[in-house]
Each structure stands twice: as structure tokens, then as C-alpha cells.
Amino acid sequence: MRATRMFQAVDSHTEGMPTRVITGGMGVIPGATMNERRLHFIAHLDHIRKLLVNEPRGHSAMSGAILQPPTRPDADFGVLYIEVSGCLPMCGHGTIGVATVLVETGMVEVVEPRTTIRLDTPAGLVVANVAVKDGRAEHVTLENVPSYCDRLDSTIVVPALDREITYSLAFGGNFYAMVDLDEIDIRFDRAHKQEILTAGLAIMDAINTQAPPKHPTIDGVDHCHHVEFIAPGSDATLSRHAMAIHPGWFDRSPCGTGTSARMAELHARGELPLHQDFVNESFIGSRFTGRLIGETDVGGRHAVLPTITGRAWITGFGQYVLDPTDPYPHGFEF
Ligand code: PYC
């Protein structure tokens, strides 16, 4: 066999959503911080993301995380998140997958009943507390980056839908537009997933064209690629949603950064106090439990500190290679 690249990977899924954890083959990405590494990777190394997540090695909803040495002394590992959408600043389901893989493969010193792993992510330090029993990661609670509500009940004209939509927008590691499904008159039913997705992409496009968000302190976080459609009957205790993501897929997991953004929004509405459980359910019915454990400030904005609890399972171990004669060195989208 000939290979110009070879990557070692541990594949996992977090509440239904894949995370391909790249444990070897990448080398150290240049950059003094994980966000600098993310921006360098986007500019110079994006073909590696495409190789690892696109078909035929991945699929149209594939996601992964590349392990790196940390760039800060208080972290155990650096993490670069790779998805079909690009390189996210932070990914909740991906972090739960990474923490599970690190524990279950013995890449960290495992302490029962709780192993704490400190992860250097492009969005900041994320602490993963892993509940471990007999070597198995039973569930992971991550302490996410500060999250804040950017706008509440704003309106935007969505030309492709030929209507005005009311939405809220919050940051939970990525920017999320939150829209009541009733706004687009579509039932919360996977039979309608294509219509929901089409509406989501149209809303993202309108927001990014007319009123793009910008994170006050993290460079290069300046667009909204996620629309969280809230199902009727949802409240600050239990919320169900369909998470439409650029360029055209749904999160299978309840979306950790989306759950954090939703909690920031509910907190800004005065509906979700600190220290109260919030259960967020995905389009496939899997759940994360979130909680707000504190308040802080992000670039002059009031922010909250979320935790997210969920489970992940290892699904396989792989070596992904690139043969020099492969006609699709970047894979392809279909
Ligand atoms: O869990 O944060 C998350 C996430 C982001 C995109 C897909 N999942």
C-alpha cells in the first residue's frame, strides 16, 4: 500500500452524533493559541479536514476533533474541531466524544469515580469531568466557555422565504439563531426535515448578509451557521429542537454549544435561573442536560457559564490514508 498521509483515529458517537478523534498523523499545527491554530488550519490545511470528514471517508453530517499538544500550561490537550461545516471554535458533542476516547483508551490518567481533563479549545478552556466506572466513561459533564445572548426577539426579512422571521441569537461556543418552528409553519417531524433544513439555510443566509454577529474577543467568529428550530411545547425545563447546520445537515446530538446558547437566551428572558437543570432534546430524541453555574462578562456583555452533561461511545478504531493516485484527495460532498 502507498500512502502520502496516514491518520490514526478513534471513532465515537455522542448521543447519536459522530466524532472522529484524530489521535495521530497530524503533527503540530502552527499557532501560539488554539484559535491561531484554527485560523492557520483554515487558511493552509483545510484539505486535511476535507479528507477526514467528506465522502468517502466521512459523510454529509460528519464531525471530528484533531488532538494537539496544548498551547496553555493549564490544559492537558489542545483540540481542533473539524466538521463538514468547517472548523468550529467549540463543539460540545465533540468534546464529550474526545473526553470519552481519552479515558477509555487510557490516553489520560484515569481516576475513578471522576477524571478531570482540561481542554484547550479555540474558544477557550473547557473542563471535562468524566464519570468513570470500571474504566468506562459513563457520562461527561463539560464546563463550557462563557455564553451570552446577542439579541432577543429580533426580526429579519428572509428573501428566500418571502417573509419576516422573529429570532433570537446567542453564543454558546458558536452563534445560534433560535426560531420557533411555528414561525415557519412546519411540523416538528422528521418527515419534514428537508423543508426545515431549507428554511434554516435561508435564515442563516439572511442573518449573515444583513446582520452578522461578531464575537467580541475571539478572532474569526463572525457568522451564524446554526439555526435551532424550537418545537412547540418547549420551555425552560425541557426543550425539543431541530438543529439545522450549514451547508445542509442536522445535528444528531442535542448540540452542546447550541444547548449553551439556548440556556443563555432563556436566562436573558428571565426564564432559566442559575443551578436549574435544563434538558435539551435533539431531532432524533437524544438528550443533554444543561445547567448554568455562574455569571461573568465577555467583552462588556453579560454572560453565563454553562455545563452540559451527555454520553458517548467508541464505535471503532481506524487508520485513514491517502493513496497518491486517489482521484479525490479532498474527498467530495454529495
Ligand atoms: O455539540 O456543540 C455541539 C455541536 C456543534 C455542531 C454539532 N454539534
UniProtKB/TrEMBL annotation:
<comment type="similarity">
    <text>Belongs to the proline racemase family.</text>
</comment>
<protein>
    <submittedName>
        <fullName>Proline racemase</fullName>
        <ecNumber>5.1.1.4</ecNumber>
    </submittedName>
</protein>
<dbReference type="GO" id="GO:0018112">
    <property type="term" value="F:proline racemase activity"/>
</dbReference>
<keyword id="KW-0413">Isomerase</keyword>
<dbReference type="InterPro" id="IPR008794">
    <property type="entry name" value="Pro_racemase_fam"/>
</dbReference>
<dbReference type="Pfam" id="PF05544">
    <property type="entry name" value="Pro_racemase"/>
</dbReference>
